Amino acid sequence: MVVRTSSSPSTPVEALSALRASGPLVQCITNAVVTNFTANALLALGASPAMCDIPGEAGVFARVADGLLVNLGTPTGEQRDAAREAVAAGTPWVLDPVAVGALPVRTALAHELLAARPAVIRGNASEILALAGAGAGGRGVDTTDSPEAARVAARELAERTGGTVAVSGEVDLIVDATGTARVAGGSALLTRVTGGGCALGAAMAAMLAVAPAFDAAVAASVVWAVASERAARSASGPGSFAVAFLDELARLEPADLADRVDIAEAAR
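-> structure tokens emitted (268 positions)
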């Protein structure tokens, strides 16, 4: 297990350096559609993925993991029980409330899990609005709202949970109770690859092993923006982009992340 030696703020450069040095173990309770891509993205980033989502094992494993992702994309009965076990272990964790709002099973579970105080909630704007009770959800897993439209809802969720809320979009919005950050850039091809957003939640869980929640969410968002931009330059479409994106995650140097964040309203 990675030993956390400081809770002081970390820049994306520092966070990626620390992640590469420590290779955190990240438990992923995630959806069946994205398991392989998520594992490969974590490996490329420098973390160690474990898709441990079986009741009776999930809680045990969470106690030795450095970060935990709970993604509600395909919430089977077993996964729901595994998530409840895992979030009770005390490991810093990320909630990805995929398609909450109109779908009752995952929506009820997402609200239940909020009581376990996720360190980070990551979703698109429609998911964040629905989770905060300010919207009905998007079009399936696709958003119908912009990150800025979800800003008030994100802040309310952050205050309620004591954590950080990351709203993905053309300009990612990251908020906690005292601060706001925006990460611009990235490639639209990420929206045409299954798992692009879900794997970002896993990257945030990996960053939680080496940085405070706000900084972890910012760092992962910057990594995704830079790597996807670089991958898009050589890609001819979604298929080649997916491969190139993994390559760029592995090739990324900490210094490549400098000066990519706009942070406001915070004395961090």
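The beta strands are 25-29, 48-50, 67-71, 93-96, 120-124, 164-168, 171-175, 180-184, 262-264.
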